[in-house]
User: Fold these one by one.
Assistant:
Number 1:
Amino acid sequence: MLHLERMKGEEENREAKKNNESYRSGRLENLKVSVSVFIANKTALAGLLIFIIFIADALIVQFDPQLIGIQSPNLLVPNFQNPIPLPPSPEHPFGTTYPGIDLFDGIVKAIRIDLAYSFFVVAVGASIGAIVGIISAWAGGMMDEIVMRLTDIVFSIPYLILALAVGFILGRSLWHMSIALALTWWPLYARYARSQTLSTKELTFVEAAKAGGVGRGMIMFKHILPNVLPPIFIQISLDLGSIVVIFSTLAFIGFIPNADIPELGYLTSLGLNYVQTAPWAVIFPGLVITVFALAVNLLGDGLRDVIDPRRRS
Amino acid sequence: MKLWAYVVRRLLLFIPTLIGLTFIVFILSHAGGNNLVLAEYINPRLTGEARTLLIQKLTEEFHLNQPLYIQYFYWLYQVLQGNWGFTTTPIFSGTVITAIELFFPNTAMITVVASVLIWAIGVPLGIYSSVNRDSVGDQVLRVGSFTLYAMPIYLIAVALIIALGVYLKLIPFSGVVNPILVSDVSWYKNGISYPTHIILIDSMLHGAWQVTWDSFLHLILPSLTLALATVASIIRILRASMLEVLEQDFIRLAWSKGIPAKLVYNLHARKNALLPVLTLYGVTVAFLLGGAVVVETVFSYPGIGYWTTQALLNNDVGGIMASTLLFGLILVTANLALDILYAFVDPRIRY
Amino acid sequence: MSEILQVRELKEQFYTRRGIYKALNGVELKLNRGEVFGLAGESGSGKSTLGLTIMGLLPRNASILSGSVLFDGIDVVAPMRDYASKSNHRFSFRKNERIIKKMNEELEGVRGKKIAMVFQDPMTSLNPVLEVGYQIAETMLFHQSSVLAMRRLARAKAKRADLEEAMKVIKNTNGDETVVERFFEERGLKGLEEQVLSIWRRPDLPDARKEKLILSLHSEKLGAFESKVLKLVQERGSVPSWFSKLPLFGRLAKKVLIKEGYRKAVELLSTLEIPNADKIVRMYPHELSGGMRQRVVIAIALANNPEVVIMDEPTSALDVTVQAQILDLVKHLKTKFNTSFIFISHDLSVLAEVCDRIGIMYGGRLVEVAKTREVFESPAHPYTKLLIAAIPTLEEKQIQEIGGTVPDMRFPPSGCMFHPRCPYAMEVCRQRVPEMVKVSSDHHTACFLYSQGEGST
């Protein structure tokens, strides 16, 4: 019996070595397959395209606004001579909203602002949350309990209202709004990352690695993170859309103190009083947000199809 | 009777969550310094000497000169006593408790109606979508819910206003009732109806059917907006859940028994598929509450949400803190109820 | 010996993102009445797929290229096969799904009633949110509601005196079935005999208790409306569809019948040697052990006394003692009711115990079919020979493994599926697919070693 087992072991070793060599070239193969799967998904491609357009807008307004004829990228330019919203025309491609602000101009500027702050919220909130979650799940014990209780407490208040309250205390500005949102958002990621890590931790191959004497740090890096990070990353990209929507919602209900910050939600609220006579004033800014959120969602779904191995078969 | 054990355990968990909630609100309300706290609890109508006296009294009562962790208990004591501070907003000024009493019923009304709509529409559509996978209906539903999911709530609200209120001139989209109808009525004073503070119900109690109909019309858009904003994710989750369930072995067994398809879908599959939806419903409730804030603001519907935004715009500390606490309480209670409901529905959880 | 099930030239494939899996490549099978047919093979050989296809339980990415499954006068796979042959490259999952749905509808009368299946993993086979008793009762509701109605009515009609007399008869004849049956039939109390006898046969109760239970089966009151409904069901043989759609009445009928179904489920489970069956039926699957769960699944399959039962690895997830009980049960049913079985397993030793004939599957085809004894004593196909040699026995010998691995069914080997691993492979094996040829009476194999290269019968 033992003789047979040893024989089998050697054969397996040889097989494993062969597999390893093909493993590396297999990775390149994998990448090619991933890209082709992604490209085949037309909606994801459309999402990517739209996403790039938005980013391009933000970057252009940031670094060279004159290129598309934008002055004062951080301010909305009212026109009190003509405060009542005007319908779309060659002069004003999207029309104007109260008080006389050109919507096209406003929207182009607002995209940069919205994107910038939302990226911040996602980058800071999500990343910190994810790190906390992973470490908490990995460490276990007391620390895990504390993190769990903390997130529980934050979850006990609806996130919109919590963001409102925190932002209120800090002071009503876009910057504080972002901080408030980041503070509300990280527990979600802590929880999500934690559950991902926990389920990966339980998987047998981790047990196998431990039994093989692999160090804890190594296990973390080579086994756990590669399984946990991709879904988190995808979740982050999906949430970018949600954050922009929430951000604009907060601005819509009146969080912003100044009357002339370009922001998509705020622009929408300006037109609210004229919704009967000038629906475009509300539709265009709102549509822009929706399109962005849609694009991000499609993009995220497409990425998920590629990265999540289960979806592949 | 392990079910009872579970309920008791869950109730016990309720208490520390409440404590945590109150603690957060406490931190928030005291983070702005003592002045902000005082602003919250001073009756704004007091001036001069009475005011100064009150400030002294309050400083003592709340032990504002002591470290924070001591202040917490005194603050909590006040909260439990019913002293939630004062609010000063254009739509209402007075004690917070009164504000809650007056505004909460309306919020409850639209949230409940929205929930009913969500389940009544969402569940059948979600099941339809999964049973008729990739059919025309399914694709339309998927595109539709995808879009709705991406739209900010205020945009859905506005779209509904434009579609139904303006172009079709069918439904009113502002306020809770046509003021003309209630201008001369005994049970309606200063914008408040008695005894339940919900115009729809009070008018039925008083037999004023015209008012009932009118208030019902006013109810439609806010509830519909909330429902549409939420139903999209319910349909998506239910569809995914059903599809997963339909691949399970026990469904194949059900088919092998030769029982009618309707039974396989609506009993065997649905019962299992609804479980994840129920689990995620806690998040949905949080979303609904936040959404109520936006919806009430857009439609000028006098509920807690409207009051909250008014407080925000008018720098009314009392209003903001109180509504945060209130919303938190609602959410925590809702989560408790959901957890217990889940235990009833899923026999595996009780053991 | 008459044929009850026939599978002819069945070719089936599955469309996946990773390629097309050719699961079945020309399967020929004949099942005789009252026979236990064993289906053996490694994982990936297609044996489970064959079982599922016979039941018509296929996912939407399954395509029947050709062949037929004839049972009870129907060709089970006809709709799917017709669609697949028409659509070729434009195979749409959606359309296939619709066809499968129609197929489900057509097979409603047959599934659960004339043919039933027991699945492999009892952990996942039962619906976790439904009581076990309900899951058994449900299949009886749809396929023998008249029996259920009859039983209930008989209990309502019976008087204590009737049962006392019956008790005497039972004691005198020691529970002779025919006598007891006639006894109740004469008194117009048909339906009571199985209830009485099932109590009598329970191994976990003392005689005195049994007597008490039997005597309590009388005069169980029925509301006037309920009894009318039940009589209607008994006559028509099922709950009329228009009736069951009526809100209150339909529900009432179902409720009464399911309740009766629970009772019958208790009897069924007692026969399967589950103690305290009356408590078990109210439990949920997760509260039961694996062995009990599997017995529930078997109870569901057997509830309506089907003609054919397909068992897919029923013992693989269970321990040996339960395995033995299940094998005993199969033997018992075969003798008593002349039920036919298709017993799928990768474990030849299990099959040796209970099967009349065994079919060996490899690469989606049957490579050898013979009587059990012959398979073990004189296997013909090289694969079979290697399988048998690989069975561990008490003698010390070196375990011979079969070199190579099961072929990737996306790219099956040319000619004979086994030729890459076959120690006797010849040139022709690579070029042509071997037909089934006769080795001796009732022993066929698909191998060129036995046909003179031309294929003879």
Number 2:
Amino acid sequence: MKRHPSEELLNDYVDETLSAAERLELERHLAECDDCGDTVEEIRSLVRRAAELPDLPPARDLLPGIRQATKQDRPGFQRWGALAASLILVGAAALGALLLQQRTGQSVAQVPAMVELRAAEEAFAKAAQVLLETLESRRGEIPEEALVALEENITLIDESIDEVRRSLNPDGDQVESERALTALYQQKMQLIWKVSRLSS
Amino acid sequence: MDRREQAKMGAYAMVENRSSSTAPDLVAQARGGDFKAFEEIYRRHVGRIHSLCLRMTTNRDRAEELTQEAFTRAWLKLGTFRGESGFSAWLHRVAVNVVIGDGRSRSRRLKRESSVGNVEDLHRSAPTGVPGLGMDLDRAIATLPDRARSVFVLHDVEGYRHEEVGKMLDIATGTSKAQLHRARKLLREALTK
């Protein structure tokens, strides 16, 4: 390297992002060029100092403002949100496991499958009930129009669930119907969950 | 692990190392709604989060507002923390998003950004007990143009990679590199005056 390398190249050298060949060539130049060596040392020193800059704590305690902003004095809505999320997962896992079991062929006779489907549905129904009860207890904090829209949508979803359930044939292939049921239950749970978050 | 991979790991490792580690059970307690646990998390991390906000904005009032906003958002988003990265890195990323989001909306609102930061705010916040070294550099950082300052703080102070910085600031990786080199050059000049 006869000409001085660009500053970009020197920066890349300090950042260790050059290829082995580029690095070798540059190091040959640095061995002979004090100016470039000084620049590299300056950049290195700056990078080191930047990484070692001390923390600068705020002049005042910011916790009261954070407490206020998170409305910490109210019962923890986030806790309920996490519970809702876990209930959705539990319900989805129950139906998902059922579908998987049937598709992998380790399956069970149709009648037991129907029993398991009912069990999974019951898990969903219980989870939905918990969500709805909690939602009810916080009704005052949620916009009225959101509650109206929620009720209308839940009615529609429940009607669809009934329709799919009626189409279930104990003697035939139920995979598609069960998939549709899973999607409807998840839709219902997520809808309740989303509306509940409007108040947080 | 080659150099490039080490560089990849840089940001998270650096963030984890620079902050006191947060006991997993403290995070678990906070996730469960225990605000006392969250207060302890705040105390452990506030210095570092506030430093980021102050160095990025160079304005003490805004830095405090943004620090408060970052912790508020962290509390509300705790349920989304999955533990893939360390908690400090996660919290830090929440703060970075808050600061950058605020900068964008402020920039849209005002249609301008002062090209020179508020040196005195940064100066006043620098710990006086530390020999002038860090303080001098902070003062110099505050004089950088906005984009160069943001890239320098995120890359050299906070340890993020150019790819990450580019995504955060919505700029090309090459632009991030160019801005970093510009910032370093300006800082070297300022510090040798």
Number 3:
Amino acid sequence: MSDPRTLFEKIWDSHLVGVAPDGTTTLYIDRHLVHEVTSPQAFEGLRIAGRTVRRPDATLAVADHNVPTTNRAAGIADPESRTQVETLEHNTKEFGVEYFSMDDIRQGIVHIVGPEQGMTQPGMTIVCGDSHTSTHGAFGALAFGIGTSEVEHVLATQTLVQKKPKSMRITVEGMIGAGVTAKDIVLAIIGKIGTAGGTGYVIEYSGRAIRELSMEGRMTICNMSIEAGAKAGLIAPDEKTIAYLKGRPMAPKSAAFEAAAAYWRTLPSDADATYEREVVIKAAEIVPQVTWGTSPDEVVPITGRVPDPAKEMDTQRRAKMQRSLDYMGLKAGMAMTDIAIDRVFIGSCTNARIEDLRAAAVVVKGKKVAPTVQAMVVPGSGLVKAQAEKEGLSQIFLDAGFEWREPGCSMCLAMNADKLQPGERCASTSNRNFEGRQGRGGRTHLLSPAMAAAAAITGKLADIRTFK
Amino acid sequence: MEKFTTLSGFAAPLPMVNVDTDMIIPKQFLKTIKRTGLGKHLFSEMRYKNDGKLDFTFVLNRMPFKDAKILITGANFGCGSSREHAPWALMDFGIRCIIAPSFADIFFNNCLKNGMLPIVMGERDTAEMMREAHDGKEFTIDLERRRVIRPNGAPVPFPLDDNARHMLLNGLDDIALTLAKTAEIDTFEDAQKKTQPWLYPAPPPAAPAP
Ligand code: SF4
């Protein structure tokens, strides 16, 4: 009998190309996703050194950060954004990498596209020059974000030089209550362990509340692992994972699929495997969450109040809290449900899959967006958009007064034309509430799609559980 | 890549925790397709006022920190986005070493790949060094012996694994080293093709998903 191993260890061990005496590991990479912002300098590096892409067949590129979400036919107005997208197009052509262009229905946010195409599979190592690559861990793949130099390294060698991270298990015991979603679970976890709580670790999420989640919900959880500082997030593959992948364009077919599925079923952590750190959270105690500050761990239950920096003992942390309050234009002690908002953004790789749009549509159906609010929905991919249109969700949003946009990152980071104006306050389903993230001076409150929809209707942050 | 052996100069104190890469280099400057020229946008939103003029209350706009080669800052530096533009911007400004109690993983790696040295230092030592830096005193970094020489001459050791140190000291290109192991990579792929053949699909799909 071999030693019991975790899911993470099984994946790690099966991808070792070589290990140096000091533990530095050459790790094989099965799949590589590429987008326009973090790849130009990598392709340029290859070109200068006269190198090629080792496995174009394992590489997929898509433009998402810079693309406009309105009137695609007009192209990209901003010259720098246009250059970046065109550069990706040229580079992928030159190096023989498949590319989903802006007018391909498969185009979308890179972390939505990979799973949707069935490119993301259990047991794989997956990287992308993007921190939210952790999303793909929802399938039981070891997936993590890398920098541009590492993108170049993977393009050239299909490997990465790595140190083995530590392992942590976060168990969410029991069942979540009505109105509580995957987004609330992950925000509650970040609130508990902090934005550096996962640094140096791969986090495996387990427990009944996690198992009961759909694949979409699991992706939301793993997506925000990086907001806890983790190297990656992982959820053990199960029959739900296998059913999700079956029939997807890049998933294995027929006999190969069965062989793959048999392997995937061997991946979950052995019963007596151990972790270097364990965290347990009771699902029943999780209340819908919303952030008040400019760091994802500055989060409280919607029933809560804006915290008071005077009660924080650590001076650096107190200063950070005060800075957050000043930036956010909030006063300590305010009820979260008294905070009025100007904008609503439903989108991003955290929450722009079909299930997220369904959850938001249920809330807004037959209602109107508050007259003081400008609200938009940006589907995660062209396929999500088409599906939502087929189900009549787009009409529900349009009737309520939402804008219905083309897929992309959009106001998650505001690199395209979609941004907050200084001082504008936004209820957002994205993943980062950093200063200026959604536009210089913009103020972001992170929450679930249903809560964002409720905020759009009431004009204030609202508790979805009491919303009518 | 330029070698990193020793470095002497002013250290700019930035007493903030959780400095994220959006703060180090905001997204409007990520549209470049080059690695250079980002220094003028480093910490843009703190360094410039709304009218575009320099804000002289910000440390990097003041003497002698305009010429700082070292940055001393709070825990979890470089968290958030994976953008390598963050170390590129620091480097372009002239900073080659960052001292903090902890770093975000991706940022830490990104520094090493660019010949920059991230130093993990205890909270107390960091706080003391920040005070000395504030007084405009010079520090020396001795990578060979893995230590920071404080302005009063006292050496403080720091951790860094052998491989990273070796790469920095010799200014080595990671990719060339890995390409030298191509035979090992071939062997790995041959074995994987047998155990997990589905990872090597024939041609990529041509049609969109249903
Ligand atoms: S949606 Fe936001 S977090 Fe996700 S990849 Fe795009 S910019 Fe990054």
Number 4:
Amino acid sequence: MNKSTFATTVDDIIKMKMEVVDEYISGIVDEIGDIGSPEKLIGKKYETWTPEDLQRLAGVYGEGDDTPLAKLIFNKEYEKVKTLEAEA
Amino acid sequence: MEKGKPTSKEIYEELYPKSLEYYQDIKKTFKDDERYYELDFADLISLPTEFRNEAVVLPTARDMVDTFVDHIDISNARVYVNKKGSSNISTEETEMMRKFYLGLIHRNNVEADISPWRVGAKHYALHGLAVFEDLWDADQWISKPDRGVDEDENSYAEKVDKWRANQYDSLPIVIHAVNPANVIPDPYYGGRSFVFKVQPKVCMDIQRKYPKWTNPKQRKISGEVDVVSYWDKIYRCEFADGEPLLPVPGGVVEHKYGFIPYVFIDSGMGNMSVDNEAKMRYVGTLRYIFDLLVSESRSYSISDIILKRAAWPWMTAEGKNASQITTISQEYGKVNPLPDDVKLVEQVSKVPPDALNQHMYRTSDYISAHSAPRSVRGLGETGVRSGADRRLMIAEAASRYRYSEDAFRNGSAKVLTNCARLMKNVIPGDIRVWAKTPTDEFDMEIKKDKMKEPFTCYVEFAPISEEDEYRRHDDLERLVAGGIVTRQWARTQMSNVDPIKMEREEEKERIKNDPAIQSAISQYISGKMAEALAKRSAAESINNPPPPITPPPPQVTGEMLGQPPVEAGRGLVPPIPNVAPLGSAQNLQNNLAQNRSQISPNPTQGIGGGGNRQ
């Protein structure tokens, strides 16, 4: 069924408002929350991290596969595996 | 050899002659355009031999071209750049690019003897084609400093800057309007894949710029040589007397511009013919009235010669002693004694026939109708009496120049985006641009690393005066206030306002001020903000743990000292009245609003034409 003009207008307004909020969050809030790369933050290369460092960083970046910390660990470990494979 | 890289032999011996052949007809026509613009056609008037030296060439051709040029808007440039994202960095980049483009227009206009846009506009009206060239200035001088293998960009930029200070102007990007007769485009349909530029230069100049040139024809130092430049999107090559000039093996180099640095602006008065003939494609305002221009000057010259001979009053002496008169003085107040029975009889000469004058006027009408009607030259039109009618006539007549607005706007945008690519891909280091225009004043460094492709911009030349602009805004304000049009429509009428963005801004403003929505959004945003801040504070505490928090000392209030508390919302002194200070912008605005007529002008005023009173 086709939506009425009023419903479409309301949808448009909600969509626009959500876009504005998204714009605000991505422009201002996300920038505040952007704390950069884990290596830069802790001031050490990944290879020299201690389990305590890892724990502290996990406390900052949070859990999950999508955090910069998880991504960095994955990349570093993947590189290690590739190097080992090449040596073998 | 790299695939697709032409050799200098292929360029000079195959592509160049083929392009030259395509362009030779139009080159002759360009010369004719120039000849008529320079009023150098007295020999075509074909007067009888004894009067040939008395031919008068009327300046109509110049008037027609100059009127056209004056109607091409090239002043008050405004540049708009698209925002590529919603972040603050994107806003910064947009603003930087806008200033870069505006600065380029301004600096090139200031540093050149004549604005390249004006030169281009004249070529456009005269030949039907304007060609802009945008180059890194160092490429014009092959002796620019060499860059060391390990030399970083900034130190090389400094070296180039020092060299430039003794060599050329301050902005490293040069925009030229090249005469179309010196540029030969790719003769084929389907996109321009290469361009030749031919420029005569003195031998000495070539030897200075290209010391390895052998001068194969052993010309004298003052001899003239055609320097042929070849440009495609990837390679360039220069020739003098058929010898490649660039000091690399083969003479063909990769230029890294990523585009051909020539922008063609076509007048649109020609026609893309079946055979893609250049002569039909590029048509200036004089091209099809050469015969009329000759005819008009001929009619005038004949009238002039006849009048010159016959208009001076002359007399005959009559009577039997007439032969005794030795001299007759025509000096004012002088009395001439005459012998007895002699009378001076005034003779009436024949004036040029009316048909001749009528023919001249008719010829002028044809010329005006074809290129520049009287009204666009500020002259009156027959039968036009009222102001409104006159405005209509001018607007109608000026419509033939309207395409030039679009053409120059789009062409300028292309020139500027080419410059941005030059800056990004070729010029070492960052550059500084500055400008002072009616709408902008800035002096800033353009950071290459902040420039992101694709480069796009919209250029607008706003020829209207401040008075006109104010009147336009005032009119729109009344229409909105009277409920005749909506705010959105009114915004679309203002060239410097983006109605969509403005509406969004307005909606954002409303959201900001709506308490209900604000509280819901605030909750959501404050949750997000708290998350972000917690993250940041955790990040900061990773290396710098926060100091222990000490409780703040208790505040001593009046209540504690036994005094009654001050009532909330009531100040101790009356508030300062909100009146605009004298001479401030708000004060001027208030005065203008008061002085403005409160009654709308009669909408039919001026349309009646007057003169109908019974």
